[in-house]
Amino acid sequence: MVTLTSIPADHTLQCQSDNSLSKSTSFSSKPSLPSLPSLGSHASTSPLPFYHCAATIKGHSSYVSGLAIYDLKTLVSCSPDQSIKLWRTNHNELSNIASAVSKSPIKSVLVSKDQTVFTSHQDGKVRAWRANLKERNHKLLLLAILPTVKDRFFSILCPKKYVQVRRHKRCTWVNHADAVSALALSHDSKLLYSASWDRTFKVWRTCNFKCVESISRAHEDAVNAIVVSKDGFVYTGSADTNIKTWRRLPGEKNHSLVSMMERHKSAVNALVLSEDGSVLYSGACDRSVVVWEGGGGQMVAVGALRGHKKAILCLAVNKDVVCSGSADKTIRVWKQEPERGYCYACLAVLEGHAGAIKNLAISFWDCFSDAECELRDERNADAHFVYSGGIDCDIKVWKILVHKEG
User: Fold this and answer.
1) Number of helices and strands (H, E) in the chain?
2) Domains in the chain, number
3) Pairing state between β 344-351 and 40-41
4) Is there a domain that residue 7 lies in?
5) What does the alpha-carbon distance between residue 345 and residue 140 come to, in Å, rounded to a whole number?
6) Is residue 358 part of a domain?
7) Domain of 322: which CATH number?
């Protein structure tokens, strides 16, 4: 029988700060934001969740730089060790079912609706992969490297296609001049967005991998995060402390700046949107998760979720459950409580990693045993898988039962 446990929500772990891994994503902690009201509460009106760590594996020889859900029972991970791996969740185990090695350290990973796997890289490129899981020998096959040879060839021929990327350096507009830090997809998966430390983001067609737009000087410093809403609004978070909203206006070919959100006082490391796009969560080195509401590109900061002792490095959301990962080596599980206005309950603090939490992914959990299903039904709970990747090279799988409203 699987044993599920819970701990008080205010139980946290003090730790020393980890060293920074990059010039843009900062692990250093800054003062929290005093100007925003705290939305977090330890006094939840719902029962505390039941959860346990179902599996821990050494996923890579370097830290885990990206996690993504491939399907309900398959996870994708990547690392600066240049490897990308597919894992099958089987009861309380993760088994590696397919792997591939790229030619550059990997920064992030994303899966489209048709299950194309996209990875972003230190060499400024994006790679597209296809998993063949139907045959006995599962494989990850490289489909394309972005920008494609065709894109690069035609941009080289035209002098107008060159842009200034450094004081004494120019390159073609289809090329990122620094590491690609984050990826996002449009709601229909027809457009891929890539954000880079070169302060730009680019837009690519997924049908032919063609670069169709480059937004130069999108920020004054490295772009660390990018997300896209269902209605086409693009949100970018940067080491310059700002979050910007972009949209391609009707009749226009290019994205335009819609608004700038300036609540954070330190580098923005992570962004995530609620399913309907009406709420944006941003995590930064100020140890706070800022909650923005409004949708439609005009977001207003309504408050902050506090509790982490060090920088927020990653975020994930599933329905009304929000998870935040930090350099303090912990993951906090938050749940919005609509009956209490903007209030969020901190349901749990997940501990076990030996280093900073670099990535999170969350999906619904299919019960594997009669005991688990009975417990879920008895508690009227939603069941979630939370996957965490750390600087300690570990991937952990957490099973969480969160009480449903009503």
Assistant:
1) 2, 31
2) 1
3) parallel
4) no
5) 40
6) yes
7) 2.130.10.10
Nearest CA among 382, 374, 375, 373 for reference residue 403:
382
- The string of pLDDT tens digits covering residues 287-325 is 999 999 987 778 999 999 999 999 999 999 998 899 999
Q: Any residues with CB less than 8 A from the CB of 370 and at least 6 apart, and which?
A: none
CA 224 to each of CA 47, 124, 268: distance values in angstroms, whole numbers, following the listed order: 36, 14, 7
CA proximity to 315, closest of 325, 303, 300, 305: 325
Domain containing residue 101: 40-403
Angle 304-277-358 (CA atoms, 0-180°, nearest 5)?
A: 55
Is residue 172 domain-resident? yes
Residue 1 lies in a domain: no
Can you tell me which residue has the tokens 């970018």?
A: 236
pTM of the predicted model, to two decimals?
A: 0.88
Question: How many Cβ atoms are within 10 Å of 251's Cβ, its own excluded?
Answer: 5
Q: What is the pLDDT of residues 166-189, one digit of tens each?
A: 555 666 788 999 999 999 999 999
For the chain, the distance separating the N- and C-terminal CA atoms, rounded to the nearest angstrom, is 28
